[in-house]
Amino acid sequence: MAAAYDYPQQNGDIAQITAGEVTSRYTGVPVQELLARAQPRAGASLLLVRGSDGYAFFVSMDEVRDNGDLLLSPQGGGDDAAYDIVGARTPRPGCEA
């Protein structure tokens, strides 16, 4: 990808889905679909997720490719919406349960 992919300014038309376990259900945009539209470079192994507040973390491309329940989930609405990445199967370092 030549430039950063900015959601929802780019392709905000992606339909939200609900996924997760019985005790945890999430609604949001599939990260797989966002990534497909962003067209990352071939051979990329990590996805950098960066919030407008500067917080950033990596998600492995294996996790994105293999986990259809990985979602970008809106919290709130309109200009005040915040987004969470939910449904990860591989814990981020320092976030293991």
Topology of helices and strands:
Layout: E1 17-20, E2 25-30, H1 31-38, E3 46-50, E4 56-60, H2 61-66, E5 71-75, E6 82-86
Antiparallel strand pairs: 1-2, 2-5, 3-4, 5-6
In short:
The protein has 97 residues and is α+β, with helices and mostly antiparallel strands. Helices cover 14% and strands 31% of the residues. A 4-stranded antiparallel sheet has the order 1-2-5-6. It has a two-stranded antiparallel ribbon with strand order 3-4.
Structural account:
The protein contains two helices and six strands. By secondary structure, the chain is an alpha+beta fold. The chain starts with 16 loop residues before the first strand and ends in an 11-residue tail after the last strand. The strands form two sheets. Strands 1-2-5-6 form a four-stranded antiparallel sheet. Strands 3-4 form a two-stranded antiparallel ribbon. The protein is globular. It has one domain. It has helices at residues 31-38, 61-66, and strands at 17-20, 25-30, 46-50, 56-60, 71-75, 82-86. A hairpin with a 5-residue loop joins β3 and β4.
